[in-house]
Amino acid sequence: MAVSPAGRTLALNHGGVFRKAVRSSGLSLCPWGRCAWRGNGSFLDPEVKAFLEENTEVTSSGSLTPEIRLRLLTPRCKFWWERADLWPHSDPYWAIYWPGGQALSRYLLDNPDVVRGKSVLDLGSGCGATAIAAKMSGASRILANDIDPIAGMAITLNCELNQLKPFPILTKNILDLEQDKWDLVVLGDMFYDEDLADSLHQWLKDCFWTHKTQVLIGDPGRPQFRGHSIQHQLHKVVEYSLPEPTRQENNGLTTSAVWDFQP
Ligand SMILES: C[S@@+](CC[C@H](N)C(=O)[O-])C[C@H]1O[C@@H](n2cnc3c(N)ncnc32)[C@H](O)[C@@H]1O
User: Fold this and answer.
1) Does residue 35 carry a pLDDT above 50?
2) Ligand 1 pocket: which of 93, 179, 224 to mutate (most atoms <8 Å of CB)?
3) Domain encompassing residue 87
4) 200 lies in some domain
5) Predicted TM-score (pTM) of this structure
6) Which of these, 48, 94, 99, 144, could form a disulfide with 154 (CB 3.0-4.6 Å)?
7) In CATH, what number is assigned to the domain containing residue 92?
8) Which of 146, 172, 219, 242 for mutating ligand 1's site (highest number of atoms within 8 Å of CB)?
9) Ligand 1 atom index nearest CA of 125
């Protein structure tokens, strides 16, 4: 499944729904597209819950954070192999634990002082692992934000899996909303599309200058990140060697780093 939102290529090697992701235009691929739970749908919708439980596998292996259990799409799931057009929802980015998010989560778990007692926004939360890591490390307030409402449901289930009380989840585009004050904003693997990268860069600058918010970015060296002007405002905090299963699923990626944004 390799995930290099490298440009338009979520370089996913294997079957079904992931091939569809490869053909899609990055994560700007109409997240509401075929989703029946648009907008403010309940994160606990029993129908979606049953679908997720049936079509994902609980796993804690193969990532940088074996202490976090997640419901993910694995080779033992039907839709790993199934024809992509049979998948009834928007592309399941929440069913992948991306290398950028893995590095961020590892860093927060190993350095709880970075989040303890702080308010944390996980922007583009996906499966919610980084928000979960922040919670495990003692963050006082957490918001997981993802524009895909199915991600909201997946995050709720993943909180339960880790015996955590679900934290607030926002499925609106936070980039369009008035800035709230956060001590820390974390972004895992969000720089895979040039336009999104530009919007994020501007939003993060506003966040930093308005509220002095600390910003940590996890990225495995995607071209849209390495080639973006944000590079001049980053300091590398730590770099991790990716575990073999993550490497196999992510063509050509061997490491993932955490960057501190200092505009
Ligand atoms: C590559 S995934 C990363 C997920 C997670 N952070 C990780 O590292 O595993 C990117 C996620 O960002 C979400 N996303 C895309 N644009 C967004 C936006 N403007 N605001 C919030 N989430 C967004 C997608 O729905 C997707 O779940």
Assistant:
1) no
2) 93
3) 46-261
4) yes
5) 0.88
6) 94
7) 3.40.50.150
8) 146
9) 6
